[in-house]
């Protein structure tokens, strides 16, 4: 099958055929977390979205250099150019060194991502480790006349840039709109215009995280880190830049302007943005105070949670929606996702029990092509999952004796589940626990054997009692012509 991967490019506002700059190599940059608190559901969505993209590109044979940064300096309160550094503030409150905070929450982030089966990126640079690159990029922007120094800080001159280039092309905003909507903010008098953004900030005496520069002892602006690290590891032009849609403006808009000003060209060819996780229709996030930590999901320890939800339950819940659509949190939606995930995993086990026939009632290869078509259509994971559930229906129907498949088609089904559910969607079987799983299987076979003995004696009350008691603890028994089978309900 010839693949024509279509991706929705935020810059052009349309789906475009993905054509790498230097095939088979692909450069992928994704904005990672600011590490000053526990990872929450809002962190999970971009991580899972771009993990699926990473996996699919690799599956198609591309050699992907995936860069996902760690923001550990320069991200100020309220995403503005004034206020306290988020990491430094956390360090002050907990009376720790800032890098202790960074180390602790980076480890927590990795643990959560590992639980969600998110692959580690090829490179995971820290903003604090690339101060030199950021200073050099600020110098180039100043040399081109698109930035100015003010009281030891350096700001990007948006109006001057806009005379030669289009500032606002990613977000669809205009400079006139910015002029009419910008109000004077406290502490921003040193800017020529309120919408100019910091490339370098002079550190106040109480500011802990600071580095020497030609302008002052200070720290880089938040937007500068991704431009500098993207250039450092992927070159002045690379294929894909991803992140949450809340980063479109001002963060990614500023990145475009910085790269054009410094290098004379746009850095990114395809801009991809995932939509938000919402709760009661409102974005879930730290700044709004309505977030739920991933650990709280895994343990069921938050007041909004009816019970615990496993990492694969969370992953499947997120994948059920297209990455550009919103996902609204509810216990009902999570529990429905859990049932769907378990059905898929049970079918993945059942498929190995199927007995081949000399003909097939279903064209499995056509279903496989539909799975590829869904992924090629801008990573349409909900459509892919619908096709996977058609595979589940076929598996269960063959197992129950209602349909038949040849050995070749059974192998195609095995491959379909492995490739799309396991390799690309990144789902793993949490119901399988190695030795414990073997023990449960052994116990269940013993119970089913006792039930068979009762049925052979026509002791229907005992047979029904065993079935009903198993159902009470979440085990479903199904009687077929080949004998009884069991599954978790």
Topology (SSEs and partners):
Blueprint: E1 6-9, E2 14-17, E3 25-30, H1 41-59, E4 63-68, H2 86-94, H3 98-115, H4 131-143, E5 147-150, E6 153-156, H5 158-162, H6 175-181, E7 197-202, E8 218-220, H7 222-234, E9 238-244, H8 248-263, E10 268-274, E11 277-279, E12 282-283, H9 294-299, H10 311-319, E13 327-329, H11 331-350, H12 364-376, H13 381-399, H14 407-424, H15 435-456, H16 460-472, E14 475-480, E15 483-488
Parallel strand pairs: 3-4, 3-9, 9-10, 11-13
Antiparallel strand pairs: 1-2, 5-6, 6-7, 7-8, 11-12, 14-15
Detailed description of the structure:
With 489 residues, the chain is an alpha/beta fold. The chain is 45% helix and 15% strand. α12 packs antiparallel against α13 (381-399). The longest helix is centred in the C-terminal third of the chain and has 22 residues, at 435-456. The radius of gyration is 27 Å and the shape is elongated. The model has no long low-confidence stretch (mean pLDDT 92).
Helix content: 40-55%
Mean pLDDT: 92
Low-confidence blocks of residues: none
Shape: elongated
Over all CA atoms, what is the radius of gyration?
Answer: 27 Å
CATH architecture of the largest domain: 3-Layer(aba) Sandwich
Number of helices: 16
Major sheet: arrangement of strands:
4-3-9-10
CATH class of the largest domain: Alpha Beta
- CATH H level of the largest domain: which superfamily? HUPs
CATH fold-level assignment of the largest domain? Rossmann fold
Derived structural class:
alpha/beta
Distance between the termini: 37 Å
Biggest beta sheet attributes: 4 strands, parallel
